[in-house]
Amino acid sequence: MSTDVVRFVTDCRVCGGERWQKVISFGRVPLANGFLEEADSYPHEEAYPLEVVSCRDCRLLSLTAVVDPQVLYRTYSYVTSDSETMRQHMRTVVRLCGHHTGRRPGGLVVELGSNTGDQLLAFQETGARVLGIDPARNLAAIAEERGVPTLAEYFGSALAATVADEHGKASLILGRHVFAHIDDLADVLAGVRALLAPDGLFTIEVPYAVDMVERLEFDTIYHEHLSYFLISTLDTLFARHGLRTVDVERLAVHGGSVLVSAGFADGPHPTGERVRELIDHERAAGYLSDGVYQEFATRVRHTCAELTRLVRDLVADGKRVAGYGASAKGTTLLNVCGLGRDELEFCTDTTPQKQGKVTPGTHIPVVAPQAVRRPPDLYLLLAWNYAEEILRREAAFLDAGGGFVLPVPEPTVRTGAVTAR
Ligand code: TYD
Ligand code: ZN
Predict the structure, then answer these.
(1) Which end of the chain has fewer CB atoms surrounding its CB within 10 Å, N or C?
(2) Does the keyword Transferase apply (predicted)?
(3) How much is the pTM?
(4) Taking the chain, what is the end-to-end CA distance rounded to the nearest angstrom?
(5) What is the pLDDT of residue 419?
(6) Which atom of ligand 1 is least distant from the CA of 78?
(7) CA separation for the pair 274, 166 (Å, rounded)
(8) For residue 284, what are the contacts with CB-CB under 8 A and spacing of at least 6?
Protein backbone atom coordinates (compact mmCIF):
# COMPACT_ATOMS: atom_id res chain seq x y z
CA MET A 1 0.00 0.00 0.00
CA SER A 2 1.46 3.35 -0.94
CA THR A 3 0.77 5.45 2.14
CA ASP A 4 0.78 8.78 0.28
CA VAL A 5 -2.65 8.07 -1.17
CA VAL A 6 -4.23 7.53 2.26
CA ARG A 7 -4.93 10.22 4.81
CA PHE A 8 -5.66 9.01 8.32
CA VAL A 9 -8.37 11.00 10.05
CA THR A 10 -7.35 12.86 13.19
CA ASP A 11 -10.04 15.44 13.92
CA CYS A 12 -13.74 14.96 13.19
CA ARG A 13 -14.90 16.48 9.88
CA VAL A 14 -18.17 17.55 11.55
CA CYS A 15 -17.25 18.90 14.99
CA GLY A 16 -13.45 18.99 15.10
CA GLY A 17 -13.36 16.59 18.08
CA GLU A 18 -10.63 14.01 18.50
CA ARG A 19 -12.24 11.52 20.87
CA TRP A 20 -12.89 8.44 18.77
CA GLN A 21 -14.48 5.14 19.67
CA LYS A 22 -13.20 2.23 17.59
CA VAL A 23 -16.20 0.49 16.09
CA ILE A 24 -15.08 -2.15 13.61
CA SER A 25 -12.09 -2.95 11.44
CA PHE A 26 -12.31 -5.05 8.29
CA GLY A 27 -8.57 -5.06 7.65
CA ARG A 28 -7.43 -4.14 4.16
CA VAL A 29 -10.03 -4.21 1.42
CA PRO A 30 -9.68 -3.23 -2.26
CA LEU A 31 -11.68 -0.32 -3.66
CA ALA A 32 -15.37 -1.18 -4.03
CA ASN A 33 -15.60 -0.07 -7.66
CA GLY A 34 -12.10 -1.20 -8.61
CA PHE A 35 -13.21 -3.81 -11.12
CA LEU A 36 -10.23 -5.28 -13.00
CA GLU A 37 -9.48 -6.83 -16.35
CA GLU A 38 -9.28 -10.61 -16.07
CA ALA A 39 -5.68 -11.82 -15.61
CA ASP A 40 -3.68 -14.78 -14.33
CA SER A 41 -2.66 -12.87 -11.23
CA TYR A 42 -3.26 -9.43 -9.79
CA PRO A 43 0.03 -8.30 -8.26
CA HIS A 44 -0.75 -4.59 -8.55
CA GLU A 45 -4.15 -4.64 -6.93
CA GLU A 46 -4.08 -2.38 -3.90
CA ALA A 47 -6.06 -2.81 -0.71
CA TYR A 48 -6.58 -0.10 1.88
CA PRO A 49 -7.56 -0.15 5.57
CA LEU A 50 -11.32 -0.21 6.05
CA GLU A 51 -12.10 0.73 9.62
CA VAL A 52 -14.98 2.65 11.21
CA VAL A 53 -14.80 4.91 14.25
CA SER A 54 -17.44 6.96 16.04
CA CYS A 55 -16.86 10.51 17.24
CA ARG A 56 -17.70 10.63 20.93
CA ASP A 57 -18.60 14.32 20.62
CA CYS A 58 -21.00 14.45 17.64
CA ARG A 59 -21.38 10.70 16.91
CA LEU A 60 -20.27 10.92 13.31
CA LEU A 61 -19.36 7.45 12.10
CA SER A 62 -16.27 7.87 9.95
CA LEU A 63 -13.72 5.77 8.16
CA THR A 64 -10.23 6.16 9.59
CA ALA A 65 -8.55 6.00 6.17
CA VAL A 66 -9.44 8.51 3.47
CA VAL A 67 -8.22 7.34 0.07
CA ASP A 68 -7.14 10.13 -2.30
CA PRO A 69 -10.16 10.90 -4.52
CA GLN A 70 -7.87 10.88 -7.57
CA VAL A 71 -7.19 7.21 -6.87
CA LEU A 72 -10.65 6.37 -5.60
CA TYR A 73 -12.56 7.72 -8.56
CA ARG A 74 -9.97 7.10 -11.28
CA THR A 75 -11.65 3.92 -12.42
CA TYR A 76 -15.13 4.93 -11.48
CA SER A 77 -17.67 2.53 -12.91
CA TYR A 78 -20.68 3.64 -10.91
CA VAL A 79 -23.63 4.76 -12.97
CA THR A 80 -27.07 5.28 -11.51
CA SER A 81 -28.93 2.00 -11.85
CA ASP A 82 -31.63 2.09 -14.46
CA SER A 83 -34.20 0.41 -12.27
CA GLU A 84 -37.87 0.96 -11.65
CA THR A 85 -37.10 1.40 -7.94
CA MET A 86 -34.76 4.30 -8.74
CA ARG A 87 -37.00 5.94 -11.31
CA GLN A 88 -39.83 5.97 -8.82
CA HIS A 89 -37.55 7.20 -6.08
CA MET A 90 -36.38 10.14 -8.20
CA ARG A 91 -39.97 11.19 -8.74
CA THR A 92 -40.50 10.98 -4.98
CA VAL A 93 -37.52 13.28 -4.43
CA VAL A 94 -39.00 15.84 -6.84
CA ARG A 95 -42.31 15.70 -5.00
CA LEU A 96 -40.73 16.01 -1.55
CA CYS A 97 -38.49 18.88 -2.59
CA GLY A 98 -41.47 20.57 -4.21
CA HIS A 99 -43.14 20.95 -0.82
CA HIS A 100 -40.68 23.71 -0.06
CA THR A 101 -39.47 24.98 -3.40
CA GLY A 102 -42.39 24.34 -5.74
CA ARG A 103 -43.81 27.73 -5.11
CA ARG A 104 -41.23 29.25 -7.40
CA PRO A 105 -41.62 28.10 -10.98
CA GLY A 106 -38.48 28.53 -13.02
CA GLY A 107 -36.31 28.45 -9.89
CA LEU A 108 -32.81 27.05 -10.26
CA VAL A 109 -32.16 23.49 -9.09
CA VAL A 110 -28.48 22.59 -8.80
CA GLU A 111 -27.50 18.99 -8.23
CA LEU A 112 -24.11 17.99 -6.84
CA GLY A 113 -22.97 14.60 -8.12
CA SER A 114 -25.58 14.64 -10.85
CA ASN A 115 -24.20 11.50 -12.56
CA THR A 116 -25.94 10.94 -15.91
CA GLY A 117 -28.67 13.50 -15.18
CA ASP A 118 -31.66 11.29 -14.38
CA GLN A 119 -32.70 13.19 -11.28
CA LEU A 120 -32.41 16.58 -12.98
CA LEU A 121 -34.45 15.40 -15.95
CA ALA A 122 -37.24 14.68 -13.46
CA PHE A 123 -36.92 18.24 -12.11
CA GLN A 124 -36.86 19.66 -15.64
CA GLU A 125 -40.23 18.07 -16.30
CA THR A 126 -41.71 20.24 -13.55
CA GLY A 127 -40.46 23.41 -15.24
CA ALA A 128 -37.37 24.00 -13.10
CA ARG A 129 -34.14 25.37 -14.53
CA VAL A 130 -31.47 22.80 -13.78
CA LEU A 131 -27.70 22.61 -13.56
CA GLY A 132 -25.70 19.47 -12.82
CA ILE A 133 -22.24 19.43 -11.27
CA ASP A 134 -20.25 16.22 -11.41
CA PRO A 135 -16.49 15.78 -11.66
CA ALA A 136 -16.78 12.57 -13.71
CA ARG A 137 -16.28 13.85 -17.26
CA ASN A 138 -17.68 10.76 -18.94
CA LEU A 139 -20.91 11.01 -16.95
CA ALA A 140 -21.24 14.78 -17.39
CA ALA A 141 -20.93 14.29 -21.15
CA ILE A 142 -23.78 11.76 -21.14
CA ALA A 143 -25.94 14.15 -19.11
CA GLU A 144 -25.23 16.99 -21.55
CA GLU A 145 -26.28 14.83 -24.45
CA ARG A 146 -29.54 14.18 -22.69
CA GLY A 147 -30.18 17.89 -22.37
CA VAL A 148 -29.02 18.42 -18.79
CA PRO A 149 -26.47 21.26 -18.59
CA THR A 150 -23.64 19.86 -16.50
CA LEU A 151 -20.30 21.20 -15.25
CA ALA A 152 -17.60 18.53 -14.99
CA GLU A 153 -16.08 20.03 -11.85
CA TYR A 154 -15.71 19.48 -8.12
CA PHE A 155 -18.16 21.62 -6.16
CA GLY A 156 -16.70 23.94 -3.54
CA SER A 157 -16.67 27.57 -2.48
CA ALA A 158 -14.73 28.71 -5.58
CA LEU A 159 -17.02 27.06 -8.11
CA ALA A 160 -20.15 28.14 -6.22
CA ALA A 161 -19.31 31.82 -6.61
CA THR A 162 -18.86 31.41 -10.37
CA VAL A 163 -22.11 29.50 -10.73
CA ALA A 164 -24.01 32.12 -8.72
CA ASP A 165 -22.62 34.86 -11.00
CA GLU A 166 -23.58 33.05 -14.17
CA HIS A 167 -26.85 31.42 -13.25
CA GLY A 168 -28.13 33.32 -10.23
CA LYS A 169 -28.86 31.88 -6.80
CA ALA A 170 -30.36 28.42 -6.43
CA SER A 171 -33.72 27.76 -4.85
CA LEU A 172 -32.64 24.17 -4.32
CA ILE A 173 -29.20 22.60 -4.04
CA LEU A 174 -29.48 18.86 -4.02
CA GLY A 175 -26.88 16.23 -3.20
CA ARG A 176 -28.04 12.65 -3.48
CA HIS A 177 -25.59 10.16 -2.05
CA VAL A 178 -22.62 12.47 -2.45
CA PHE A 179 -22.35 14.00 0.99
CA ALA A 180 -21.01 10.80 2.53
CA HIS A 181 -18.20 10.86 -0.06
CA ILE A 182 -16.90 14.32 0.86
CA ASP A 183 -13.94 14.83 3.18
CA ASP A 184 -13.84 18.63 3.30
CA LEU A 185 -17.42 19.34 4.31
CA ALA A 186 -16.58 22.90 5.37
CA ASP A 187 -15.66 23.97 1.83
CA VAL A 188 -18.75 22.38 0.31
CA LEU A 189 -20.97 24.08 2.88
CA ALA A 190 -19.24 27.40 2.20
CA GLY A 191 -20.12 26.78 -1.44
CA VAL A 192 -23.72 26.07 -0.49
CA ARG A 193 -23.92 29.35 1.42
CA ALA A 194 -22.53 31.22 -1.58
CA LEU A 195 -24.97 29.71 -4.07
CA LEU A 196 -28.20 29.28 -2.10
CA ALA A 197 -30.99 31.86 -2.35
CA PRO A 198 -31.91 33.40 1.04
CA ASP A 199 -35.08 31.31 1.17
CA GLY A 200 -33.58 28.33 -0.67
CA LEU A 201 -32.97 24.84 0.62
CA PHE A 202 -29.96 22.58 0.65
CA THR A 203 -31.24 19.02 0.51
CA ILE A 204 -29.12 15.93 0.87
CA GLU A 205 -29.90 12.26 0.67
CA VAL A 206 -27.63 10.04 2.71
CA PRO A 207 -27.82 6.49 4.04
CA TYR A 208 -29.21 6.72 7.56
CA ALA A 209 -26.76 5.43 10.17
CA VAL A 210 -29.63 4.16 12.33
CA ASP A 211 -30.85 1.96 9.48
CA MET A 212 -27.34 0.71 8.77
CA VAL A 213 -26.83 -0.24 12.41
CA GLU A 214 -30.27 -1.74 12.96
CA ARG A 215 -30.28 -3.76 9.74
CA LEU A 216 -26.60 -4.70 9.93
CA GLU A 217 -25.87 -3.23 6.51
CA PHE A 218 -22.13 -3.50 7.09
CA ASP A 219 -21.48 -3.91 3.37
CA THR A 220 -22.49 -0.29 2.76
CA ILE A 221 -19.16 0.46 4.44
CA TYR A 222 -16.52 1.02 1.75
CA HIS A 223 -13.84 3.56 1.00
CA GLU A 224 -16.12 5.90 -0.94
CA HIS A 225 -18.36 6.32 2.10
CA LEU A 226 -16.31 8.42 4.47
CA SER A 227 -19.22 9.35 6.75
CA TYR A 228 -22.34 7.63 8.11
CA PHE A 229 -24.73 10.20 9.55
CA LEU A 230 -27.28 10.49 12.32
CA ILE A 231 -29.72 13.38 12.11
CA SER A 232 -28.19 14.73 15.33
CA THR A 233 -24.79 14.76 13.64
CA LEU A 234 -26.08 16.57 10.56
CA ASP A 235 -27.84 19.06 12.81
CA THR A 236 -24.52 19.79 14.54
CA LEU A 237 -22.82 20.14 11.17
CA PHE A 238 -25.38 22.51 9.70
CA ALA A 239 -25.41 24.67 12.84
CA ARG A 240 -21.63 25.07 12.65
CA HIS A 241 -21.98 26.39 9.10
CA GLY A 242 -24.77 28.92 9.47
CA LEU A 243 -27.54 26.57 8.44
CA ARG A 244 -30.56 25.10 10.20
CA THR A 245 -32.05 21.64 9.76
CA VAL A 246 -35.54 22.15 8.37
CA ASP A 247 -36.98 18.79 7.47
CA VAL A 248 -36.22 15.11 7.22
CA GLU A 249 -37.90 12.24 5.39
CA ARG A 250 -37.02 8.60 5.82
CA LEU A 251 -36.72 6.72 2.54
CA ALA A 252 -36.45 3.05 1.66
CA VAL A 253 -33.68 3.35 -0.97
CA HIS A 254 -30.20 1.91 -0.46
CA GLY A 255 -31.23 0.04 2.65
CA GLY A 256 -32.70 3.08 4.40
CA SER A 257 -31.80 6.67 3.65
CA VAL A 258 -32.85 10.10 4.80
CA LEU A 259 -33.62 13.18 2.76
CA VAL A 260 -32.54 16.06 4.96
CA SER A 261 -33.13 19.71 4.15
CA ALA A 262 -31.42 22.73 5.62
CA GLY A 263 -31.94 26.45 5.12
CA PHE A 264 -30.08 29.51 6.32
CA ALA A 265 -30.10 29.77 10.13
CA ASP A 266 -31.54 33.28 9.74
CA GLY A 267 -33.82 32.26 6.87
CA PRO A 268 -37.58 31.71 6.76
CA HIS A 269 -37.75 27.92 7.24
CA PRO A 270 -38.30 26.68 10.81
CA THR A 271 -37.17 23.30 12.14
CA GLY A 272 -39.89 20.73 11.53
CA GLU A 273 -41.38 18.35 14.06
CA ARG A 274 -39.90 15.26 12.43
CA VAL A 275 -36.37 16.57 12.87
CA ARG A 276 -36.86 16.85 16.60
CA GLU A 277 -38.55 13.47 16.79
CA LEU A 278 -35.69 11.67 15.09
CA ILE A 279 -33.06 13.45 17.17
CA ASP A 280 -34.95 12.49 20.32
CA HIS A 281 -35.22 8.92 19.12
CA GLU A 282 -31.51 8.72 18.40
CA ARG A 283 -30.71 9.82 21.93
CA ALA A 284 -33.30 7.50 23.53
CA ALA A 285 -32.14 4.51 21.48
CA GLY A 286 -28.55 4.93 22.61
CA TYR A 287 -26.97 6.27 19.43
CA LEU A 288 -25.13 8.96 21.38
CA SER A 289 -23.15 6.45 23.43
CA ASP A 290 -20.67 3.63 22.83
CA GLY A 291 -22.83 0.58 23.54
CA VAL A 292 -24.87 0.56 20.32
CA TYR A 293 -21.73 0.55 18.20
CA GLN A 294 -20.00 -2.20 20.19
CA GLU A 295 -23.07 -4.31 19.77
CA PHE A 296 -23.20 -3.49 16.04
CA ALA A 297 -19.66 -4.81 15.61
CA THR A 298 -20.48 -8.03 17.43
CA ARG A 299 -23.62 -8.61 15.38
CA VAL A 300 -21.80 -7.86 12.11
CA ARG A 301 -19.11 -10.44 12.87
CA HIS A 302 -21.83 -12.95 13.63
CA THR A 303 -23.80 -12.26 10.43
CA CYS A 304 -20.63 -12.52 8.37
CA ALA A 305 -19.69 -15.85 9.86
CA GLU A 306 -23.23 -17.14 9.32
CA LEU A 307 -23.27 -16.04 5.70
CA THR A 308 -19.91 -17.62 4.95
CA ARG A 309 -21.00 -20.87 6.56
CA LEU A 310 -24.34 -20.88 4.71
CA VAL A 311 -22.78 -20.31 1.28
CA ARG A 312 -19.96 -22.81 1.86
CA ASP A 313 -22.46 -25.43 3.04
CA LEU A 314 -24.53 -24.90 -0.10
CA VAL A 315 -21.46 -25.31 -2.28
CA ALA A 316 -20.36 -28.38 -0.31
CA ASP A 317 -23.83 -29.81 -0.97
CA GLY A 318 -23.11 -29.54 -4.68
CA LYS A 319 -25.13 -26.40 -5.29
CA ARG A 320 -23.92 -23.91 -7.87
CA VAL A 321 -23.94 -20.37 -6.48
CA ALA A 322 -23.40 -17.06 -8.30
CA GLY A 323 -23.61 -13.40 -7.32
CA TYR A 324 -26.51 -11.18 -8.45
CA GLY A 325 -25.45 -7.56 -9.02
CA ALA A 326 -21.73 -6.80 -8.75
CA SER A 327 -22.49 -3.89 -6.44
CA ALA A 328 -19.96 -1.84 -4.54
CA LYS A 329 -21.49 -3.33 -1.40
CA GLY A 330 -20.71 -6.74 -2.83
CA THR A 331 -17.00 -5.92 -2.78
CA THR A 332 -17.08 -5.34 0.96
CA LEU A 333 -19.34 -8.29 1.58
CA LEU A 334 -17.32 -10.81 -0.42
CA ASN A 335 -13.93 -9.62 0.80
CA VAL A 336 -14.94 -9.34 4.45
CA CYS A 337 -16.74 -12.70 4.47
CA GLY A 338 -13.98 -14.40 2.49
CA LEU A 339 -16.28 -15.52 -0.32
CA GLY A 340 -14.61 -15.78 -3.73
CA ARG A 341 -14.16 -17.93 -6.78
CA ASP A 342 -14.32 -21.12 -4.71
CA GLU A 343 -17.90 -20.27 -3.83
CA LEU A 344 -19.27 -18.06 -6.60
CA GLU A 345 -18.99 -19.13 -10.24
CA PHE A 346 -19.70 -15.67 -11.60
CA CYS A 347 -21.57 -12.44 -10.83
CA THR A 348 -24.21 -11.02 -13.11
CA ASP A 349 -24.45 -7.27 -13.52
CA THR A 350 -26.37 -5.02 -15.88
CA THR A 351 -23.64 -2.33 -15.98
CA PRO A 352 -21.74 -2.59 -19.29
CA GLN A 353 -18.59 -1.05 -17.70
CA LYS A 354 -18.37 -3.97 -15.23
CA GLN A 355 -19.11 -6.80 -17.64
CA GLY A 356 -16.09 -8.80 -18.81
CA LYS A 357 -14.11 -7.66 -15.76
CA VAL A 358 -13.58 -9.38 -12.43
CA THR A 359 -14.67 -8.29 -8.97
CA PRO A 360 -12.18 -6.36 -6.80
CA GLY A 361 -10.15 -8.60 -4.49
CA THR A 362 -12.17 -11.73 -5.14
CA HIS A 363 -11.70 -11.86 -8.94
CA ILE A 364 -15.05 -13.37 -9.79
CA PRO A 365 -15.96 -12.86 -13.48
CA VAL A 366 -18.74 -10.34 -14.06
CA VAL A 367 -21.14 -11.25 -16.86
CA ALA A 368 -24.22 -9.70 -18.42
CA PRO A 369 -27.43 -11.37 -17.14
CA GLN A 370 -28.39 -12.37 -20.68
CA ALA A 371 -25.01 -14.09 -21.15
CA VAL A 372 -25.75 -16.68 -18.46
CA ARG A 373 -26.18 -20.02 -20.23
CA ARG A 374 -26.66 -22.29 -17.22
CA PRO A 375 -28.33 -20.44 -14.35
CA PRO A 376 -26.97 -21.40 -10.92
CA ASP A 377 -29.04 -23.09 -8.23
CA LEU A 378 -28.82 -19.99 -6.09
CA TYR A 379 -27.91 -16.37 -6.45
CA LEU A 380 -26.30 -14.49 -3.58
CA LEU A 381 -28.11 -11.16 -3.79
CA LEU A 382 -25.34 -8.58 -3.66
CA ALA A 383 -27.75 -5.84 -4.80
CA TRP A 384 -30.12 -6.51 -1.89
CA ASN A 385 -31.32 -2.89 -1.95
CA TYR A 386 -33.33 -3.89 -5.03
CA ALA A 387 -34.54 -7.17 -3.53
CA GLU A 388 -38.24 -6.62 -4.16
CA GLU A 389 -37.82 -5.58 -7.77
CA ILE A 390 -35.32 -8.35 -8.51
CA LEU A 391 -37.33 -11.15 -6.89
CA ARG A 392 -40.36 -10.03 -8.88
CA ARG A 393 -38.39 -9.95 -12.12
CA GLU A 394 -36.79 -13.34 -11.47
CA ALA A 395 -40.09 -15.12 -10.80
CA ALA A 396 -39.37 -17.62 -13.60
CA PHE A 397 -35.98 -18.52 -12.08
CA LEU A 398 -37.65 -19.02 -8.70
CA ASP A 399 -40.49 -21.00 -10.20
CA ALA A 400 -37.96 -23.25 -11.89
CA GLY A 401 -36.55 -24.12 -8.46
CA GLY A 402 -33.89 -21.42 -8.19
CA GLY A 403 -33.25 -19.53 -4.96
CA PHE A 404 -31.77 -16.33 -3.60
CA VAL A 405 -29.53 -15.90 -0.59
CA LEU A 406 -30.33 -12.58 1.07
CA PRO A 407 -27.25 -11.61 3.08
CA VAL A 408 -28.50 -9.01 5.60
CA PRO A 409 -29.69 -8.47 8.30
CA GLU A 410 -29.58 -12.21 8.71
CA PRO A 411 -28.57 -14.58 5.93
CA THR A 412 -31.72 -16.23 4.58
CA VAL A 413 -32.59 -18.35 1.57
CA ARG A 414 -35.65 -17.41 -0.50
CA THR A 415 -37.01 -19.98 -2.88
CA GLY A 416 -40.01 -20.02 -5.21
CA ALA A 417 -41.99 -21.99 -2.66
CA VAL A 418 -41.64 -19.25 -0.08
CA THR A 419 -42.04 -16.24 -2.35
CA ALA A 420 -45.07 -17.72 -4.13
CA ARG A 421 -46.90 -17.77 -0.81
P1 TYD B 1 -26.19 -0.08 -6.40
O2 TYD B 1 -27.45 -0.45 -5.83
O3 TYD B 1 -26.12 1.18 -7.10
O4 TYD B 1 -25.26 -0.19 -5.18
P5 TYD B 1 -23.74 0.00 -4.86
O6 TYD B 1 -23.63 1.42 -4.47
O7 TYD B 1 -23.53 -0.98 -3.76
O8 TYD B 1 -22.95 -0.35 -6.09
O9 TYD B 1 -25.62 -1.20 -7.38
C10 TYD B 1 -26.30 -2.29 -7.74
C11 TYD B 1 -25.51 -3.04 -8.79
O12 TYD B 1 -26.32 -4.11 -9.21
C13 TYD B 1 -25.19 -2.22 -10.02
O14 TYD B 1 -23.89 -2.58 -10.48
C15 TYD B 1 -26.23 -2.66 -11.04
C16 TYD B 1 -26.55 -4.05 -10.60
N17 TYD B 1 -27.93 -4.46 -10.83
C18 TYD B 1 -28.15 -5.62 -11.58
O19 TYD B 1 -27.21 -6.26 -12.06
N20 TYD B 1 -29.44 -6.02 -11.79
C21 TYD B 1 -30.50 -5.33 -11.29
O22 TYD B 1 -31.65 -5.73 -11.49
C23 TYD B 1 -30.27 -4.16 -10.51
C24 TYD B 1 -31.40 -3.38 -9.93
C25 TYD B 1 -28.95 -3.76 -10.30
ZN1 ZN C 1 -17.49 14.87 15.80
Answers:
(1) C
(2) yes
(3) 0.94
(4) 50
(5) 46
(6) 8
(7) 36
(8) none
